[in-house]
Specification:
heterodimer; A: mainly beta; 5-stranded antiparallel sheet; 0% helix; B: mainly beta; 7-stranded mixed sheet; 4-stranded antiparallel sheet; globular
């Protein structure tokens, strides 16, 4: 079966750095996505990786290793507004998105 | 610019009652449209997707149905709700002949079935 694993919850301190990991086993691979979802709201697109390596976008970076079936989302200079769930999703060989359950990130002052 | 709206935002329904959630997209033509359900502690579950008017693909057999009566309108329905239908329902859109993975979501509809 297809599976996306990410930690259920993480806690970090305002101003610090946090890394959220995601491992996947899917039928084919056409890209990995990170979405941010604030409580009670819809997910919004953060990043996309299809080749190995690091993609940087401001305070957020996303890394992919296809051979290891592994990605991480790195958030720097954490702000209270970064408190949210972060969803990892993989586009499989049928171009369907397979979603992880999400990682709830709690930021403490 | 493109916008997506879905309603109602919140509803509480008794078991066995009907359901209708509506979603509309503005500012784009011939979008791909999706209905997802998000249950607590689980990943987004794709329920239906549509690549055009009257074209509906069902991903999960259940007591829900979807219709696309107009290009930018997508409706999720049920004739008789079950307790297990409770959840957060999300409509989403993107464009292109294949799914690129970048989706734009509506505000979501929280359904509680009692």
């Amino acid at each position: 079966g297809q599976n996306i694993d990410q930690p259920t919850e993480m806690t970090a301190t305002e101003g610090a750095i946090v890394q959220i990991n995601c491992t996947y086993q899917t039928s084919g691979f056409n890209g990995l996505f990170w979405y941010q979802q604030h409580a009670g709201e819809a997910p919004t697109f953060l990043s996309y990786n299809v080749l190995d390596g690091l993609e940087e976008k401001g305070r957020f970076s996303s890394f992919l290793s296809r051979s290891k079936g592994y990605s991480y989302l790195l958030l720097k200079e954490l702000q209270m507004k970064d408190s949210a769930s972060y969803l990892c999703a993989v586009l499989d060989s049928n171009y369907q998105l397979i979603w992880g359950a999400g990682t709830k990130l709690i930021i403490k002052p | 610019s493109q916008t997506i709206h879905q309603w109602p935002a919140t509803l509480v329904q008794p078991v066995g009652s009907p359901l209708s959630l509506e979603c509309t997209v503005e500012g784009t033509s011939n979008p791909n449209l999706y209905w997802y359900r998000q249950a607590a502690g689980r990943g987004l579950q794709l329920l239906f997707y549509s690549v055009g008017i009257g074209q509906i693909s069902s991903e999960v057999p259940q007591n829900l149905s979807a219709s696309r009566p107009q290009d930018r309108q997508f409706i999720l329905s049920s004739k008789k709700l079950l307790l297990s239908d409770s959840g957060f329902y999300l409509c989403a859109w993107n464009t292109g002949e294949i799914n690129t993975g970048e989706l734009f979501f509506g505000e979501g509809s929280r359904l509680t079935v009692l």
